[in-house]
Design a protein that fits this description.
This protein is of the alpha/beta class. The protein has one domain: Alpha/Beta hydrolase fold, catalytic domain (Rossmann fold, 3-Layer(aba) Sandwich), CATH 3.40.50.1820. It is built from 6 helices and 7 strands, in the order ββαβααβαββαβα. The chain has a 7-stranded mixed beta sheet with strand order 1-3-2-4-5-6-7, with helices on both faces. It starts with a strand and ends with a helix.
Length: about 210
């Protein structure tokens, strides 16, 4: 499994970080996010699902993706040593991480970070994809944009509310599913990345 470890000089935690459905671990968003997390003393181990390694467009079925998550978390644990270990990812990567954790706990993982949980397909609102979250027994941080076409906040808020203290929902104003903002918002994509990194780092150093 291809992996990329970014470890700051004095890390406070390590995050096994999976990519989204349409782009791999070297995508600009993944690179920028890992760099900003490193600036906040969070090490990352980025990795790729088999379909991305093989150049296929269609994401792996859950069984294959879950196995990849477990392999990546096991490798991350070796790098983490005594550091607190977390897992998560962008969109599909985050959902497959929680799917794995719902089937059986991810060893040593203290929490899951979702950089845009894909609650439903665009234009097809629903909550079926969130049913497994009830079986996840570690804290979860949801980072969601207000313009995210894959997560109607009117549906996601009650989903998170139903998970009780295990779930924290952080709303990123003006951001879409890729965490881009419109120029007229008065914000920049760089500012959004800083917000994501600040919030995720705070979660991982306090969980």
């Amino acid at each position: 499994m291809p992996t990329l470890l970014l470890r700051p000089p004095d890390p406070a935690a390590l995050l096994a970080l999976a990519h989204g459905a349409g782009a791999g671990m070297r995508h600009a968003f993944m690179e920028a996010l890992a760099g900003r997390l490193a600036d906040r003393r969070i090490a990352t181990l980025r990795y790729e699902f088999p379909y991305m390694q093989e150049g296929r467009r269609r994401p792996d079925p859950p069984k294959v993706a879950v196995a990849a998550v477990r392999d990546a978390v096991a490798e991350a644990a070796q790098h983490a040593g005594e550091l607190p270990l977390f897992a998560g990812g962008k969109s599909f990567g985050g959902r497959m991480t929680s799917t794995a954790a719902a089937e059986a706990p991810l060893a040593n993982v203290r929490g899951i970070v979702f950089f845009g949980f894909p609650l439903h397909p665009a234009g097809k609102p629903g909550t079926t994809r969130a049913k497994h979250l009830a079986d996840v027994d570690v804290p979860m941080l949801f980072l969601q944009g207000t313009r995210d076409a894959l997560a109607d906040l009117d549906l996601l808020r009650p989903v998170c509310g139903g998970l009780g203290d295990r779930a924290r929902l952080h709303i990123v104003n003006g951001a879409d599913h890729g965490f881009h903002v419109l120029k007229r918002s008065g914000r920049t994509d760089d500012e959004v990345l800083d917000e994501l990194a600040d919030t995720a780092a705070a979660f991982m150093t306090s969980a």
